Amino acid sequence: MKLFFNGKNLKRTILTFYLPNSRLNLFLKKYPNLVEDLKKRHQIYNNSLDLIEKKEENNQFFVFRPEKIDIDRFSRDKKELEQLYNSGYKLAEKRSGEFSEWLKNNKE
Questions:
Q1: d(CA 71, CA 80)
Q2: DSSP state of 68
Q3: pLDDT band at 39 (very low <50, low <70, confident <90, very high)
Q4: What's phi and psi for 86, nearest 5 deg?
Q5: What is the pLDDT confidence band of residue 99, given thresholds at 50, 70 and 90?
Q6: Where is the DUF6363 domain (predicted)?
Q7: Do 4 and 10 contact (CB within 8 A), yes or no?
């Protein structure tokens, strides 16, 4: 790899390394479905969004969507997280009448 990173154009490269049997690998062997689900988690996520959209169109779900989220998903900034929480709270207050009406019309 050193040659590669130093700009040498190699036609063939063989990499070898040892991957120890860690506790994680042992854990994953016990749960093969978890590994498969993790491999296709993006498909599961997109299918979930499609289902939510269809249920909303058929008036089976009432969905609260934030208008805009300008925050890193790994943020630990308390001020940013509190602002995000407050914007969700305000959205719920703003749409509470609409939600109450939806509940009245969708008693099942």
A1: 7
A2: -
A3: confident
A4: -65, -35
A5: very high
A6: 31-104
A7: yes
